[in-house]
Amino acid sequence: MAARGALPLEPIELATVLFVLANDPDAQVKETARTSLETLPDHVVSVVLGGQAHPALLSFLAQVHKESEPNCEALALNAATDDRTIAFLATLPHSRVVDIISQNQQRMMRHEAIVDSLGANPL
User: Fold this and answer.
1) pLDDT recorded at residue 3
2) What confidence tens digit (pLDDT) does each residue in 1-23 have?
3) Which of 16, 37, 92, 116 is deepest in the core (most CB within 10 A)?
4) Tell me: the pLDDT tens digits for 26-43?
């Protein structure tokens, strides 16, 4: 039930449980949890991306939702998103995300890969 996301939990807690189970040694549990995490409803995803979720979970969701500019924007604005994930987001072709990242001087000074990613982005 947990791997299918059929637990009465708050969005961040549910996504965290699914993320942990997506790394389970049991292949069936792992695949079911990963599929559930990748197909969470938009209203759940938006809460997770804007909330105080674990940075590893946010990094995973950045990969899953890299085509969605609103989701990437939420990640770029989230202080809980780690700098490596921000560097990844800086490589994507989303102009608003690039603008958000380029205005965060503290992050750029803290993690040089962000500046490199912005410099390599054709936008």
Assistant:
1) 78
2) 777 877 789 999 999 999 999 99
3) 37
4) 999 999 999 999 999 999
- pTM of the complete model: 0.93
Please report, as a single letter, which amino acid is at residue 1.
M
**DSSP per position, 34-102:** HHHHHT--HHHHHHHHHS---HHHHHHHHHHTTT-HHHHHHHHH-TTS-HHHHHHHTTSS-HHHHHHHH
54's CB contacts (< 8 A; 6+ apart) are 16, 19, 80
Residue 64: both structure tokens together: 């899953």
Backbone torsions φ then ψ of 33, nearest 5 degrees: -65, -40
Taking the C-alpha atoms of residue 83 and residue 89, their distance in angstroms, rounded to an integer, is 10
CA 23 to each of CA 4, 33, 34: distance values in angstroms, whole numbers, following the listed order: 14, 9, 8
